[in-house]
Write a structure and sequence with these properties.
The chain is built from eight helices and no strands. By secondary structure, it is mainly α. The protein is elongated and about 100 Å long.
Length: about 270
């Protein structure tokens, strides 16, 4: 309701009120800000839902995916696609960069789940080109989100490797129960793959980024330390399995408590 102009004694003035020429301009600003905040909240909510669904996918993935789990994950992928499509119109043109930080967390978790499933099925790393095609709705996958998602993949591969060694007694990808690969067969196992990832990550140059707000430049130091810790845990577990493999009972769990006197960095959990 429009305000009523009053005189000094509080009575309504009979003078004709004039509308400020700036009023329409500020009303336009108000509407634009309302649209911005509504759009931002939609993107944040969708990103959180994508994160939750991606984590549920990761928890159920293993080397032999049962049909019921595959069906559940297929339904989750469909739900993730719907969530991406629901915010697709909000992430077009300049808005793709304006709200990139709000959607980035969900995209990284989706990348982690996608790359983990791809690795279990093919024992290869999903390429940036293929991953970009998996994000629906024309939503762009930045190089930063792709690389940070692969950083998180290392943690899942570590948990997968430790669990497989504890339950099956050998390293995934190996040809023997001691975790060794036949020297005449040029086949990698999960440890050699993790070491390769570590080598590539350690050679990553983020200082040349022109944007100080880059997600990769902002998070790489923390992610790098967690990644190195994860690879070291698998190395220690394989060492114990090979050296003391004949001495332990079935169902033995690798001992990761001995870290050589160094402090352990916390590993990102579910």
């Amino acid at each position: 309701m429009a305000g009523v102009k009053r005189s000094y004694d509080g009575k309504a003035s009979t003078d004709a009120t004039t509308t400020s020429p700036f009023m329409s301009m500020f009303e336009t600003f108000r509407n634009e800000l309302d649209e911005h905040h509504d759009r931002r909240e939609r993107i944040i909510k969708a990103s959180r839902d994508i994160t939750a669904l991606s984590k549920k996918m990761v928890r159920q993935l293993k080397i032999d995916i049962p049909s019921n789990v595959a069906k559940e994950n297929s339904a989750r992928l469909s739900s993730i696609d719907d969530l991406f499509l629901s915010i697709s119109s909000d992430l077009q043109a300049i808005n793709a960069w304006r709200y990139q930080r709000q959607v980035s967390g969900g995209v990284q978790e989706f990348m982690e789940a996608l790359s983990f499933q791809h690795y279990l099925e093919t024992q290869t790393l999903v390429t940036y080109k293929d991953a970009k095609q998996k994000v629906p709705g024309g939503i762009g996958l930045t190089e930063d989100d792709y690389v940070l998602g692969i950083f998180d993949l290392v943690g899942e591969l570590m948990r997968f490797a430790i669990t497989a060694m504890a339950t099956n007694g050998y390293l995934p990808g190996s040809t023997s129960e001691t975790g060794e690969v036949n020297s005449g067969v040029p086949k990698s196992n999960i440890l050699t793959d993790l070491r390769s990832l570590r080598t590539y990550f350690e050679g990553l140059d983020t200082t040349s980024s022109t944007s100080s707000g880059s997600a990769l430049r902002r998070d790489v130091e923390k992610k790098m330390e967690v990644m190195k810790t994860c690879v070291e845990k698998v190395e220690n577990a394989v060492y114990g399995m090979i050296v003391r493999g004949r001495e332990r009972p079935k169902g033995w769990v690798p001992d990761l408590a001995d870290d050589g006197g160094r402090g352990r960095e916390p590993v990102e959990s579910y």
